[in-house]
Amino acid sequence: MTKASATKGPDHGTINPDEAAHFGALAEDWWNPDGSSAMLHRLNPVRLKYIREAIDVHFACDGRMLKPLEGKRALDVGCGAGLLCEPLARLGADVTGLDAARENITAAKAHASPQGLSIDYKNVAIENFGKTDYDLVTSLEVIEHVEDPPAFIAGLAGALATDGLMILSTPNRTAMSKLMLVDLAEMTGRIPKGTHHHDQFLTPDELDKMLDEAGLTVTDVTGIEYRPARGFSLSDNLALNYLMTIVKK
Q1: Helix 17-24, helix 102-112: angle, nearest 10
Q2: Is 237 helix (H, G, I), strand (E, B) or coil?
Q3: What is the pLDDT of residues 184-215, one digit of tens each?
Q4: What is the pLDDT of residue 122?
Q5: Between β-strands 216-227 and 231-235, what pairing exists: parallel, antiparallel or unpaired?
Q6: Comparing C-alpha atoms, which of 149, 187, 167 is closest to residue 74?
Q7: How far is CA 99 from CA 7, 94, 138, 173, 200, in A?
Q8: Which residues, listed in sequence order, are joined to residue 234 by a DSSP beta bridge?
Q9: Do 78 and 141 touch, CB atoms closer than 8 A?
Q10: Which of 54, 100, 109, 114 is found 20 to 30 A from 121 (Cα to Cα)?
Q11: What's the mean pLDDT in 26-34?
Q12: How far apart are CA 151 and CA 165, in angstroms?
């Protein structure tokens, strides 16, 4: 896959349509914890722990509150079939989820409906979304699939309220991430082939610079490491993957 081979469309924005198709093909299996998205299911509790702590700090919430996002609007960009949107809704937020793959949106709606979760899922690119003032904007494991990261970040920044909170996560571009998230992960079948392209990973410094140019400030960077004996955990080690807490300047 090359950048030249992709054609941008209203649904894809700067997400490569080949990658949107790749994830769309996995949509029916998205909620199977032992299926093609098993790695995301194992990663999600760690991401949720980080997000909850960031919410409590930013919005001055008591950590014992069941719904710290009550009365707040949350936007998850690259939502897949709703793995993050559903917990955000349970935390009390009025949630909107965007994804470039129509199949993911269909799967997300089908999973949320029987649970009585009212989540507004849309097959719309953030660059074309045009809505603003979200208290929380998240985009996890998405920017590494974007052809024009600065334009994507500008879209995220435009959706964020002046006093809002943004959280991103993405793999770092290191020898460790290539070994663990591309070579070994695909060889063992833990991640479907073609999911990751190491040259599209961003280092924390690269991402920080793009965020700064979009009028955003990084307030925290925390790594996610993997150990066979205990799985994923938050860490000071940024070599594999990392999360960022971001606010407007």
Answers
A1: 40
A2: coil
A3: 666 565 666 666 678 889 999 999 999 999 99
A4: 97
A5: antiparallel
A6: 167
A7: 17, 17, 12, 24, 19
A8: 224
A9: yes
A10: 54
A11: 83
A12: 19
| Band (27; pLDDT cuts 50, 70, 90) | confident
Residue 63 burial by CB count (10 A; 0-12/13-18/19+): exposed, middle or buried? Answer: exposed
Q: Is the pLDDT of residue 125 over 60?
A: yes
Positions of E strands within 63-173: 73-77, 94-98, 120-122, 134-140, 160-171
Three-state secondary structure call for residue 114: helix
User: How many C-beta atoms surround the C-beta of residue 114 within 10 A?
Assistant: 7
Look at residue 234 in the predicted model and tell me its pLDDT. Answer: 97
pLDDT the model gives residue 2: 30
Whole-angstrom distance, CA of residue 1 vs CA of residue 151: 20
Q: Residue 223's beta-bridge partner residues?
A: 235, 242
* Site of tokens 């494991």: 141
Region 54-68 average pLDDT = 96
Per-residue pLDDT of 127-166, as tens digits, reads 999 999 999 999 999 999 999 999 999 999 999 999 999 9
- The number of helices, as runs of H, and strands, as runs of E, in the chain is 8, 8
Coil, helix or strand for 173? Answer: coil
- What domains does the chain contain, in order, with CATH numbers? 3-248 (3.40.50.150)
Strand-by-strand arrangement of the 216-227 sheet? 120-122, 94-98, 73-77, 134-140, 160-171, 241-248, 216-227, 231-235
Asked if the model's pLDDT at residue 95 lies above 90, the reply is yes
